[in-house]
């Protein structure tokens, strides 16, 4: 068993809005949130007051403890206000990908039993259609303004009393992001107030920000990485968060230059752009102190190319997963020069890890594995700590398949630890595809492909494109009468029915999908195909 070098931290048993904004008054007029597109600024005092007024308005509208509110928005300075107001009113927030189709959104609304939706006017059509398909949605609110819908901007003027909701941080779910876990279709990940708040304190000894630090929030808040690293952690400690709604390279670089950004938390595609795109040389990025990448594996050579070009310490990495609130490992900024290339970091405070041999991997439980391994030996990564999720919503069997009776979460990732405790992730037992940091479940795409009248069978694997991104690669068996089915037709069929990040990017036609006697797709054989 591997244990963290850091001292254990006590569990944080307060609601997440208090864990993050409990000291907002201490930071007063310090800028908390800045809109990176138009410069609109909210101070800590304003964030504290406005989210409380919004919580009062939500309670007045009928939001009650136990309700689920779906937050469907790109990054805006209103996103944190909506999030903390909802939890202060006693609701659980389920975060929704802003590019989800109405059908995908409706599935999440139904599964989570969401009664309230908060969106933005450009996405209102999708939200309305999703609510119609799902049923049970009481009201759709907008962050900005739209005819026929109440605006959060107006609701902050509420004079209703602030709700006094008895939140149980141990049991009550604060946020319900959706994750495919190690296999299968998206499931609601129940993260309690204590789990996500404690994970913030676990991370602080290794990587912490504070007053004077400026962070650029370009990764999405709806993703647990963005929610933790770009919203909860910096706002807990008095840093300033500059918010961008999406990644566009020139806008991103201009924001770094104009707002004197010091810290970047990014995903590998942004590291690639910083390392190779010629436009980077047009901007003054001298304010940057360090870059941390997570959400997907980062090639060590690419990391070095980025740091050399920017004149920074080596790009660090972090590791975790939604089901772990999400953090378990990080390369501390103080150790960027000393960490070996390619490592995802060391265990954060209060976290334990085992590396177990892969004998028996792929069984129904996923836990009939072999012996514990030592430094230098590769096996499946198991994690235990206070950040392990409460479970999957309504899916006790899936929860039991991931977390064993002793509390170990079986990540499905294969890795090894060196003699100094640095973790290297080298492969995945699980089949989940990480496209630019977003999760794509092969099973979901396979099920969709099989609805095409000209497709007899299909299997989807991850493959690398020319930029090193993992992309969905479909292996398709045509029906005998459909010899003319083309790659473009297959890709268009999928693209019309899923969010852009889930699109099939490559198609190979095969005679048969290789399967084991149990029916399990033998994906390794497909990966080995030329």
Helix content: 25-40%
What CATH architecture of the largest domain would you give? Answer: 3-Layer(aba) Sandwich
Report the structural category: alpha/beta
Model regions low in confidence, pLDDT < 50 over at least 5 residues? 360-366
* Average pLDDT metric: 93
Q: Tell me the fraction of residues in β-strands, as a range.
A: 15-25%
Number of strands: 27
| Widest beta sheet: strand line-up | 1-18-19-21-22
What value does the Rg take, in angstroms?
Answer: 23 Å
CATH superfamily grouping of the largest domain? ANL, N-terminal domain
How far from one another are the termini? 40 Å
CATH C-level class of the largest domain: Alpha Beta
Query: How many domain modules?
Result: 2
CATH topology of the largest domain: Rossmann fold
Q: Largest sheet, if any?
A: 5 strands, antiparallel
Secondary structure tally, helices: 16
Question: Rough shape?
Answer: globular
Q: If you had to describe this structure to a student in words, what would you say it looks like?
A:
The protein has 530 residues and is an alpha/beta fold. The protein has 2 domains: 416 residues, Rossmann fold (3-Layer(aba) Sandwich), CATH 3.40.50; 95 residues, 2-Layer Sandwich (GMP Synthetase, Chain A, domain 3), CATH 3.30.300. 28% of the residues lie in helices and 23% in strands. It is built from 16 helices and 27 strands. The strands form 7 sheets. Strands 1-18-19-21-22 form a 5-stranded antiparallel β-sheet, with no helix packed on it. A 5-stranded mixed β-sheet has the order 13-14-15-16-17. A 4-stranded mixed β-sheet has the order 3-2-12-11, sandwiched between helices. A hairpin with a 5-residue loop joins β2 and β3. α3 crosses α4 and α5 crosses α6. The chain starts with a strand and ends with a helix. About 1% of the residues have low confidence.
